[in-house]
Specification:
By secondary structure, the protein is α/β, with parallel strands linked by helices. It has three domains: about 1-195, Tetratricopeptide repeat domain (Serine Threonine Protein Phosphatase 5, Tetratricopeptide repeat), CATH 1.25.40; about 200-265; about 280-500, Vaccinia Virus protein VP39 (Rossmann fold). About 50% of the residues lie in helices and about 15% in strands. The chain contains 20 helices and eleven strands. Helix 1 (about 30-45) runs parallel beside helix 3. The protein is globular, with a radius of gyration of 27 Å. It starts with about 30 loop residues before the first helix and ends in a 10-residue tail after the last strand. Keywords: Repeat, Signal, TPR repeat.
């Protein structure tokens, strides 16, 4: 079970927990241990249904004086087999049975080696239980399971890493998440014989440092101190920069860490967020995306985009129907839903398969077609497009020239584009206008790009896109309790031989 989508950080660990037994197929009257060995062989060969049947027979064959190790292994591996075929309800039941068996019978064992082995299996059962619960959207239950795994085995870095992901991504407890990530990192780098240490730890260490950096930057008002001297205050930004730098050193292909390092160091050379970064961001965010965006961040840009679009035409009744509409960076369909009634055929495009799956779950059949891919490629592949809508998806581009070039190429003559962008806050805008009068875009601490209106209009003009409606957006979402400023643009592609004034 490997679900390393790092807002979940679910790590692979050893699935098989075997008791060594020699089995002779000619034997009559198999014991529980015989069935366990046969079932483990089946599970190793991905014969999951056969393994399930054998594990169940093994459980049925248990005797009153059966070894606790055999009981734990049968229940744990049966749960893993159920998880492998997607039956998480039964997986949860049998992981819980393994843990209950451990709690009920462990006091009867006096041999220290057997106690340690039983603890190890029960800890892994609890870890696996946490993984299934986390994937099922039960963060608080997953938290308890991961916590118990650590109690049983303090060297289980995977449980601590997953504990951190639940705290950070799903429960918003960034301080405790930071502590969990740091402990997981410490186990892998400083502790002798960590449980199930990866053969090549660089990828895991990179992800842990990346997420440590995220915790440190989550709250701009946060105060930090060194573990060696808690009384001495240090810059959280410096500590986060160090964490993101370490993440890139461990894994130079970690695009998310590269992006956040550029963000925190205000790297002016970054022209757009990489597709890998955006894909990972929204794969991680998919299940909680809409609740977080609308309920927690107060996002209403999708509604404002539709209302602004109507005003561009003089009212809702004057908005025509468009033959081919592309919802660029469609997410879960919040924007597409607003424009469905003026679309004959609507395509939803996103870099994240997980977010498109969530869109289909929340809004079945909203899109006539869903495409996983880069919007600049799709614009060209699906031309001629009559309307492009993009709410908060162009904010991952700094340099708009390649994007607008693709829009120009993909849009039919006279076609429309309606989109939102972020702006810097009012104080920063004044400062930038005075200190850098030619500024075009700014990579913000959120990892998104903010754009200057004049720059957007300049690029649009270069690509034969005329502005027909503009609105400022104040508070269309919130960031750390503060209103985010933005722009709303409605543009039309020039028809050959017609000037902008005639559009």
């Amino acid at each position: 079970m490997f679900l390393c989508r790092l807002s979940k950080v679910i790590f692979a660990v050893t699935i098989l927990l075997m008791v060594s037994v020699k089995v002779h197929p000619s034997e009559i009257g198999f014991s529980a241990e015989d069935y366990l060995s046969l079932a483990n062989n089946a599970l190793s060969s991905d014969a999951n249904e056969k393994a399930i049947d054998l594990y169940l027979k093994g459980i049925h064959a248990l005797t009153n004086d059966e070894s606790l190790l055999t009981i734990l292994s049968l229940e744990t591996n049966l749960a893993s087999a159920y998880s492998s075929i997607g039956d998480n309800e039964k997986a949860i039941v049998h992981y819980q049975k393994a843990i209950s068996s451990y709690n009920e019978l462990i006091d009867e064992i006096v041999d220290k080696q057997l106690i340690d082995q039983a603890k190890g299996i029960a800890s892994q059962s609890s870890l696996f239980l946490g993984m299934v619960l986390q994937d099922a959207g039960e963060p608080r239950k997953a938290l308890d399971a991961y916590g118990y795994a650590v109690v049983l085995d303090p060297k289980t870095w995977a449980a601590l890493a997953n504990l951190g992901s639940v705290l950070h991504d799903q429960l918003g407890n960034h301080d405790e998440a930071l502590d969990a990530y740091n402990k997981a990192y410490e186990i892998l780098t400083e502790v002798e014989d960590p449980t199930d240490a990866p053969e090549e730890p660089r990828f895991i260490l990179s992800q842990l440092q990346y997420r440590i950096g995220l915790c440190l930057t989550h709250d701009p008002e946060r105060k930090c101190a060194l573990a060696t001297d808690p009384t001495k205050e240090v810059s959280c930004k410096e500590m986060a920069t160090h964490a993101f730098s370490l993440a890139v050193q461990y894994d130079p292909s970690n695009e998310s860490a590269k992006h956040m390092l550029a963000t925190i160091t205000a790297d002016a050379t970054m022209k757009r967020a990489s597709n890998t970064y955006v894909t990972n961001l929204f794969d991680d965010y998919a299940q909680n995306f809409e609740h977080s965006l609308v309920q927690e961040l107060g996002y209403n840009g999708y509604e404002k985009l539709r209302r602004g679009f109507e005003r561009a035409f003089g009212g809702e009744s004057f908005v025509p129907t468009f033959s081919l509409v592309v919802d660029a960076g469609c997410g879960t369909g919040l924007v597409g839903e607003q424009f469905r009634n003026v679309s004959s055929y609507m395509i939803g495009v996103d870099l994240s398969q997980a977010i498109l799956d969530e869109a289909e779950k929340l809004r079945p059949k909203l899109y006539d077609e869903r495409i996983v891919g880069d919007i600049t490629d799709v614009f060209r592949e699906k031309k001629p497009i009559s309307l492009i809508v993009a709410a908060d998806s162009y904010i991952y581009f700094g340099d708009l020239d390649p994007l607008f070039d693709a829009m120009e190429d993909g849009m039919d003559d006279g076609a429309y584009a309606a989109f939102t962008l972020e702006n810097v806050n009012a104080d920063d805008e004044v400062t930038l206008d005075e200190s850098k009068p030619d500024w075009r875009w700014q990579l913000t601490p959120s990892g998104r790009f903010a754009h200057r209106k004049q720059y957007v209009l300049h690029v649009a003009q270069a690509h034969h896109l005329a502005l027909i409606h503009y609105e400022t957006l104040d508070g269309f979402r919130y960031e750390h309790g503060r209103k985010v400023r933005g722009h709303l643009f409605v543009m039309q592609k020039k028809v050959a031989g017609i000037s902008n004034d005639e559009l």
